[in-house]
Design brief:
2 copies of one chain form a homodimer. Chain A has 4 helices and 6 strands; from the N terminus they run ααβααβββββ. Chain A is an alpha+beta fold. Chain A starts with a helix and ends in a 6-residue tail after the last strand. The interface between A and B is large, with 36 and 36 residues. The structure holds a DNA duplex.
DNA sequence: GTTCTTGCAAAATATTTGCAAGACG
DNA sequence: CGTCTTGCAAATATTTTGCAAGAAC
């Protein structure tokens, strides 16, 4: 799926900022921060515009946000076919990379009486293959 | 264990700010934010001092930090006997309360080849018993 | 042409740092 | 008394908001 198709599908206006963000993200295996996306960007946009674009894309479940402690905020593409499917995220303590672990299932967890769960966030921290050498 | 004992045990100077923070936290079943702790505080301290105190207490594993997306940063007492033991956190979407789920085990999760895990963070979001009524 | 998006400037917020004064042990 | 802690002021960083101009459809 191309960036433009995604925008059309969600009935979002095709602007070069949104299109560029999606292209950068589709070209990366890792989650990217606002500044990382801006660095890989051909055009030049105001940060405000980036933040607003992220918000729109997130509201449409095209991308999702991952917050590592308070250190990093990164964004990753959602699974367009199954946007609600939960998945775990991996954070490398060494190179700070963040990636989605689509094959790591999240088990259901027992909760105290009367509690209900709507969502689960699992962040696994450690060292990625490169940093482990 | 009293606040002063905890400080002594970790060879930290007994200052009224640290002592007060620990007392407020020991009196709460929930994780508290910097501002919530400051509100429940008898004395009056600079925010800088609070942040530095949190940092010291966290470095000594007396408390730990829980970050909910980018919305809330809260602190909770660690388990003094077993500070490294991981546990899950519950976040209530309605009342924004955060609490430690000490009885919820965190399973080990399969990782890609070459990856190693040093820590796991699990945040379960939903509604707490009160907000579920 | 109407509605949504952008850029700019400015505000809000959380957190950190340097430095001198003060408290702890 | 030496070291660690505090308060103040200021810096940093991130994100949000209002408003007018501009682009999309």
């Amino acid at each position: 799926m191309e960036a433009i198709e995604i925008l059309n599908y969600h009935k979002l206006k095709r602007t070069s900022c949104r299109e560029g963000i999606l292209e950068v993200m589709m070209g990366s295996k890792q989650a990217l921060s606002e500044s990382e996306i801006r660095e890989n960007f051909s055009g030049s946009y105001d940060r405000t515009t980036f933040y607003r674009s992220f918000k729109t894309l997130e509201a449409n479940r095209i991308i999702h946000k991952i917050v590592i402690d308070n250190l990093f905020v990164k964004y990753a593409l959602g699974n367009a076919l199954n946007p609600k499917k939960m998945h775990a995220h991996f954070y490398c303590n060494d190179c700070n990379a963040v990636e989605c672990l689509n094959n790591t299932p999240i088990n259901t967890h027992p909760l105290p009486k009367g509690y209900t769960c709507s969502d689960t966030e699992l962040i696994i921290k450690g060292l990625c293959a490169k940093c482990n050498q």
